Amino acid sequence: MTDPDENLQPADVIPKRWQCCHCGGTGVDSYSDTCQHCEGLGFC
Ligand SMILES: [Zn+2]
Ligand SMILES: [Zn+2]
């Protein structure tokens, strides 16, 4: 008897974009300028 939850899709299906590690997802850096790491998108 196996648990059907074991057959969920693999965890390697990750989002193409993620919260920016530089601005924290705000799209603005500490100087209130557009984050150059994500170009203001908030994702990188
Ligand atoms: Zn980033
Ligand atoms: Zn950013």
Automatic annotation (TrEMBL):
Q: What is this protein called?
A: Uncharacterized protein
- The species is Planotetraspora silvatica
Origin superkingdom: Bacteria
